[in-house]
């Protein structure tokens, strides 16, 4: 499926993030959370709960930081999270698929658009909640470890 069509499932705003998370996970569920990396034998990578919980743990730390220490400290962690997402995507094709379909990098870029604006904290929190929703729906729709 076309990447542009896939990321159009994501409506990263206060009203649409929960439905977007559900749409992303339902789409990946239809692929059995699997990305074939070897066409000859059909082997590949699976998206696992531990893989996305690792991302969630970083996101939870950002949520705690933005609430207790402020936006400036959270910005540093957001930048590091982006690097980790890119790295994990390079290691595992299913994580890469998850990151692309969920448009996590785009969502981080959207948060960055509010740099030093009054709404910046709200957008950081929204990103964290979007990630929580992705994990919740992954578990709900049968994602396994």
Protein described:
The chain is mainly alpha-helical and 145 residues long. The chain is built from seven helices and two strands, in the order ααββααααα. The longest helix is centred in the middle third of the chain and has 21 residues, at 71-91. The model has no long low-confidence stretch (mean pLDDT 90).
For the sheet with most strands, the description reads: 2 strands, antiparallel
Question: In total, how many domains does the architecture comprise?
Answer: 1
User: Uncertain runs with pLDDT below 50, 5 residues or more?
Assistant: none
In total, how many beta strands?
2
Order of helices and strands: HHEEHHHHH
Please report the number of helical segments. Answer: 7
**Whole-number radius of gyration?**
15 Å
Strand content: 5-15%
Strand order, biggest sheet? 1-2
Residue-averaged pLDDT: 90
Query: How would you classify the quaternary structure?
Result: single chain
Helix fraction bin: 55-70%
- Give the structural class: mainly alpha
* Shape descriptor: elongated
End-to-end gap: 26 Å
Function: This subunit may be involved in monitoring complementarity of crRNA and target RNA.
Family: Belongs to the CRISPR-associated Csm2 family.
Organism: Ligilactobacillus ruminis
InterPro entries: CRISPR-assoc_prot_Csm2_III-A
